[in-house]
């Protein structure tokens, strides 16, 4: 619902320590002295007052504190000790005020005061008054006040307000519970109080119970710790502010600190003493540990007192310790002990911080408002940009199913592109790609598992077993397995698909002779060798024979195992098909005459065009070279003519040079050659461009041929036929698509219906959508079940 954030203030504060001296007519002036600033107290112990004191023992102490309250009124005590702590609680700081001291020194008087005299009321009623007064002064905030009153006696928890008629006695004992929001006491009644008066009556109720208990339960009230807690929660009255603050003010009246176990105490008293001594020293330990910034573990859980106060001690709250002492000489030893405790506490530092929380409900409301606004903004944008109505809501099942269907159709090739609508939709498209992909992977694998026994290549025991059976070679390759390709374990001898055999196939097989059928061991031709990179010559018709020879030789070298004869009766029911795939070169010939015939034809055509162009290019080049040579000869002849002319003396006519006919003809010839050269050169350039283009086409065709071949090969020899049968009806499987995808696109009719519906529904307004959604979902479910049943039947066949 809500979570807490502690806003660090960064400033460290000390625990505020005060001393209040109980007024007395017998004040030990000799022994107790106050400093001038009222912030220190000096104790002088006369040696003779303590029997058995050794000479060198300390007799003087000086205690520095935050204030000494001597003859101070309840009013002044409150002003000095509590006012700031309470004020800060309304700003979100936890505060704890504790009264410490020996029994009778005035702790209860300070904390509660006398209930019969208003003037002598203590910190508790004054704190409640202040809280309600401050609430009145803050109309901008809705502030609630709750109170609880807990007593801890001999490590047991008592609810001092459980006697209220609406609370009722608790069935189970109270426990201290910690959660991320802090510490609370399970079973302790917490009372909402809307006004001072209510709060006071609760306080009196508790006080009365405390007194009654001390009589009826034989419980000495000075032996118990009492914690009165005021819980404040302040919400801003403006809706936009989702932050709110919570705080607690713990007003603690501690059990008497006097050492009880010294002499003669026994039974109940001894037990009480032990508990008190322990809890007070644990309190001290915890507070000291809190002040030590290096300490990570604080021993809160050692006793109920520190555990219950866990989030209100030291740390991030305002802490005040008021030590009540007697002013009489007779009590000096206890006084000294109390003052020591106070001065140790003074060294502890705390780091008060605001308890800021977030109202989740308000936050959601605010975010909803913001979201609605942004959606409106988007709608305006869309309409300005002339976009059709786009839905930015999260996708529902049906929309996701539609995207799934789009992705499948896209993968099959029946959908050219997926329109981009918005970010959410793009993300979903990618999601569905992943979904489809993983489904297909599983589908293919399980189909293979149905058909073949798969053996882990690292499972040597299994491999040696199948080796013995003659199903696998010494290297762990399965019989008839092309490298890195197959994983089917075949048992039937190789036989090509009947009825699809071509003439060329037969001759090819003859060429291969029986050795090809002895294939086994490592595959004769690896998948790699059929790759574009190395297959150029292989696929060129002219060099085919050489390659085949090559393969045959390699097969002979490596073949060692005869495939086992088939005796599977199942195989005979279906059109027989080899369980051991044929070697790839053989299969490739089949492929070129079957499904690959068209690509192969185009490939050959391109190839012959390429060859023709190459031939022409080489002819042109030869011609160019010839022209070049002739040009050289002509140039030489011209040069000769020129030198002749120079020797014979030049003829000039009106500034024009006169040359003879022979020279003139040579010049004409050179000009003509140059023209020829240019034309031929231009031709060559065009041819080269054409060759380059043709080469590209040929490469593409070859790649396509090989890719399609691989797919065909897998389909024909690895993907079970029953699966393929299931895939066949209803559409052309484009070669090159993974056919398993067909099985996955379910309920497309439903999708179409939905799209149509959407168009019909939209004008009717959004209210109708839920109705139609329900309708479509039901139809979809039916559709899906129908399709699944159909598929299962197909599989069973
Ligand atoms: P504690 O709770 O420490 O055992 P109390 O508060 O019960 O001690 O005080 C014991 C008695 O002394 C009570 O009767 C109380 O009214 C009285 N008393 C204590 N402090 C003062 C004080 N400052 N002024 C007047 N009376 C006091
Ligand atoms: Mg008391």
TrEMBL record:
Pro residues bias (residue ranges): 576-585
Coiled-coil ranges per UniProt: 357-384
Keyword ATP-binding: yes
Superkingdom to which the source organism belongs: Eukaryota
Sequence ranges of Polar residues compositional bias: 532-543
SMART domains documented for this protein: KISc
UniProt-annotated stretches for the region Disordered: 490-589
GO biological process terms, semicolon-separated: microtubule-based movement
Subcellular location: Cytoplasm, Cytoskeleton, Flagellum axoneme
Molecular functions (GO terms): ATP binding; microtubule binding; microtubule motor activity
Pfam family, one: Kinesin
Keyword NAD: no
CDD domains: KISc_KIF9_like (cd01375)
Entry keyword set: ATP-binding, Cell projection, Cilium, Coiled coil, Cytoplasm, Cytoskeleton, Flagellum, Microtubule, Motor protein, Nucleotide-binding, Phosphoprotein
Binding site residues for ATP: 101-108
GO CC, any one term: microtubule
Residue stretches making up the Kinesin motor domain: 14-348
UniProt-listed InterPro entries: KIF6/9_C, Kinesin-like_fam, Kinesin_motor_CS, Kinesin_motor_dom, Kinesin_motor_dom_sf, P-loop_NTPase
Comp. bias intervals (Basic and acidic residues): 544-557
Assembly: Interacts with HYDIN.
Family that this chain belongs to: Belongs to the TRAFAC class myosin-kinesin ATPase superfamily. Kinesin family.
UniProt function note: Essential for normal male fertility and for progressive motility of spermatozoa.
Protein name: Kinesin-like protein
